[in-house]
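Weekly modeling sync, notes
Attendees: S.R. (lead), two postdocs, one rotation student

Agenda item 3: backlog of single-chain predictions. S.R. asked that every request posted to the team notebook include the full sequence so nobody has to chase files. The rotation student volunteered to paste the first one in as an example of the format we agreed on. Action items at the bottom.

Example entry:
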Amino acid sequence: QAIAAEDLENTYWQRMRDDGSVVDNHVLTSGDDVESMCGLPRIDRRLLLLPRDRTQMAGTNVQTRLDRAEREGVLLRTSVRSNDPLWHIQPPEPPHLVIPKQQAQRWGVSVNTIRAYASDAFVCIRLEQPELAARIALWMNSTMGLFLRELLRPDVHVQSITVRDAQEFPVSDDAILSVIDPSSYAALSRRR
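Predicted structure, as returned to the notebook:
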């Protein structure tokens, strides 16, 4: 809504994927953003990615909004004070799998189907073989995966997942993963 209200150019809110398609710069900011194992909901938060060179934005509505923000003292905020220049961040790599750090209601590992960026509310996993993402998510959410998770976590009363938890989670070898057919588990994958 803010994007439309400010009439900000889409080129800064979207990016080109390797296959040539254009997608929004979605940002996952809480575990509530993850709806199911193999799908993410319609989230309304976007990451504004601006070029380092300010002259590339000359004459745009984004430049006008940036000028206004600077007049309003945004430069003084501690959250952006260390950025040089203030408006530029290095585009992060979207993860293939996301695990919400807070796992109070249920254990869940999700495939990042929309290639959203993720905040530090998630353990983000990038795979060497991205085509295995759905199979690995099914494995990690399966009864066997849940059993191994419980077996390997010494502090079962802790509800937060850490990067170490994700690193130590045993994933089956390629021979077993290759026989998992994600389409056979479509209903399970979409379950909330």
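Discussion: group reviewed the output briefly. The helical segments are 2-6, 61-71, 78-81, 133-141, 143-152, 163-168, 174-179, 186-190.
Action items: rotation student to repeat for the remaining queue; S.R. to check formatting next week.
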